[in-house]
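Journal club side-thread
Mid-discussion, someone asked how the predicted structure for our own chain would compare to the paper's figures. Pasting it here so we can look after the session.
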Amino acid sequence: MRRKDKEVTGEELIDEVLDAVAVCRLGMCVDNKPYVVPLNFVHQGTTLFIHCAKSGRKIDVLNSNPNVFIEVTREGAFVPSSTTENICNSGYTFQCLMANGIVEFVQDVEEKKRVLDAVCAKYYGKAGTMPASEVRRTCILKIELTDISVKQAGDWS
């Protein structure tokens, strides 16, 4: 990371950022062309889980190349320059996590149910009712994050 003054480390911070953010961006590449999609997710430590349909462009891309890049940003606030003499001293507070990973497709129905319960808890505040047929129709992507970096600007304590 070029700006070492903005780099932060620690598993607690990784959990804090992943817990606070609702959307991750999943970067993929096929035929030397990048493809990025915003997605809801849950995590257990440094393992991300994403639920989605079993077909579509994203699935086609991942079947041809399971290597991905994840980005999540916890946005803060605009910080205007303290002087009008140099507007370039303005900034923005944020926490940004970036990582690599390889997608695995979860096949185990019980693991899918656990992930979907976690999704419901995160986004609805409670577990939901999921018919077995819907669980089977849902694709769960599992990504163990590697090469994790977190960049931060501003005070988040």
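Post-session note: The mean pLDDT is 87.
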